[in-house]
Write a structure and sequence with these properties.
277 residues, alpha/beta, TIM Barrel, eight-stranded parallel barrel, globular, oxidoreductase, Lucif-like_OxRdatse_MSMEG_4141, oxidoreductase activity, acting on paired donors, with incorporation or reduction of molecular oxygen, Luciferase-like_sf
């Protein structure tokens, strides 16, 4: 892969990403910043983060192929890669039918988009693909440098590695709550999972494949569902979940740190850096 991701990174939604946040991640030694949701096609946020930092790789997680034409994101990629060689991984994905009115032929649309990136000179080693199900995981292995599963478990990581084989980078997202009180941890972890993910077809289908019943997935998710998708507890508990992903075949784990509303994220990041890096 043209971009080297460290073992532990941080995932954060684009509206919450600032240059100052990225600089702190860089200072703490995290292996990458994954910018969530679909940023505009000019990718100015990616560029500003790279300009502000010295070594931190950045990935988009993801650019939505329905929202940004391939030629537009390719032009942005080349502009950024020229300024910051080896530090930007272009992650793309199909999004969700609930969010896109023209959600037709999703697999063929992904293939066409990757074909256009080929034509625009964005090589396989420069790009990654959001992937959950077997068909798109195989596409990620065939046509990109990395698969980016989101809202998954170590068991999914094991299955994904089997499908991808040994050569494709497997970079998984893992939600965490640094809170030792179980009830409080569940209260923090459940809402970001329930809304919107437990109402989105792609994620529900993946969770069913992992053995969760419709009853467990209803009404905001059972405790078992939330505990499977969100690592909760102290830094050692988070480290144990991260180790499960690595044992299952992950190359990179991107932590999405969930906190109570208006709680400062930086203390949690420093605790994680001390324990995991």
């Amino acid at each position: 892969m043209g971009v080297t991701l460290g073992r532990i990174g941080i995932w954060r939604a684009a509206p919450a990403v600032t240059e100052e946040f990225a600089v702190e991640l860089d200072r703490l030694g995290f292996g990458a910043l994954s910018i969530g949701f679909s940023p505009p096609g000019d990718l100015r946020l990616v560029e500003s983060v790279l300009d502000a930092t010295e070594r931190l790789p950045v990935a988009t997680s993801i650019v939505n192929v329905w929202q940004v034409p391939a030629h537009e994101v390719a032009a942005s990629y080349h502009r950024i890669a020229e300024r910051h060689p080896g530090r930007f991984l272009l992650g793309v994905g199909i999004g969700h039918p609930e969010a896109t009115s023209d959600y037709r032929r999703p697999y063929a649309t992904l293939v066409d988009y990757l074909d256009e990136l080929d034509a625009e000179g964005v090589g396989v080693d420069a790009r990654a693909l959001a992937a959950l199900g077997p068909k798109v995981l195989r596409l990620a292995g065939d046509r990109t440098a990395a698969a980016l599963p989101y809202l998954t478990t170590p068991e999914h990581t094991r299955q994904a590695r089997e499908i991808l084989g040994p050569d494709t980078t497997l970079a998984v997202e893992q939600k965490i709550v640094l809170e030792t009180d179980p009830e409080r941890a569940l209260a923090i972890g459940r809402p970001p999972v329930a809304n919107p993910y437990l109402s989105l077809r792609n994620y529900l289908n993946n969770l069913r494949r992992l053995g969760f019943s419709d009853e467990e997935l209803a009404d905001g998710g059972s405790d078992r569902v939330i505990e499977a998708l969100v690592a909760m507890g102290d830094a050692d508990a988070v480290a144990a979940r991260v180790d499960e992903h690595f044992a299952a075949g992950a190359d990179h784990v991107s932590l999405q740190v969930l906190t109570a509303q208006d709680e400062d994220l930086l203390p949690a990041l420093r605790t994680l850096a001390d324990r995991l890096l």
